[in-house]
Request: fold
Amino acid sequence: LRIRPTDPPPMSSSKYNVTLTNYARGLAQDISATLANFLAPEVVVPAATGQYKSFDDKNTFQVVDTSRAVGGPAKRLEFAASDPTYNCLPQALEIAIDDHERDEAGEGDPLRLEEAKTQTLVSSAVTSHEAKVFAALTALAAAANIVLATDDPIAKIDDHIEALARDTGRMPNRLVIGLPLWNKLRNNPKVIARFPGAVSVGVTMPQFASLLLNPSIDVRVGIMSQDTAKLGLAKNTVNIVGLQLVVFHATASPTLYAPSFMKTFRMRRGGVDVVRTYRDDSARSDILAVDWSEDIRVTSPVCAR
Reply:
């Protein structure tokens, strides 16, 4: 008797898992408080490709004359032929549940094992997305440096807030700072000295924001890390944001037209389109696959410093 090996089924035979899809979308919403969503908020688009308005120079922030002659046409805001195009490319991650893992887990609660695996997938996707968002910062001009030993960090940041507001007519309303730099700034003598009596032993985040030119600016600290070592080498984790501080303008619910600094174009909100399951008999495993699409763009480089 000759037994033919069973090939893994094609993805077309995979099943759309409603329960795990809803669970993954809920997880993605919970983790959406990460800096990636803060820096490059989601814009849900009607198609995988299309145009968006780019605010890439000062001229795009000029005041429009909205007066209209009686019987005359109105000024029309529309996409120009030169406006760029987004392209939401497919993304996917898979994870296996080995038959041996199911045997060890027992039959009491099989869904818990699937949820744990789904959580691992979503967490990996979120970390990857955050790293890609901060990699996109290379599209900005060369960074300005703050010399902590001699500069007054608050005065330096205020200079950039003022310059950005002057260039765009919009007050920077968000600030991102890496945990290593935040540790240095909150204990900086020149920052502490701004408080009466200099009694503070390390400045809190609300206190730090209150010192800035826009005291209501939303300050977030980047705490996510990534392992930069290749597989097989010793672990080398670094903070994704590191010694960076980004001051920028963003709208709470951006659109294709809104002049936010960065955007993440997606077909569905939450970064999870679907969770599929299929069987890989050659690996003695059930496979969970998460699919989504996205395109991360710096849509208004003049809106950030």
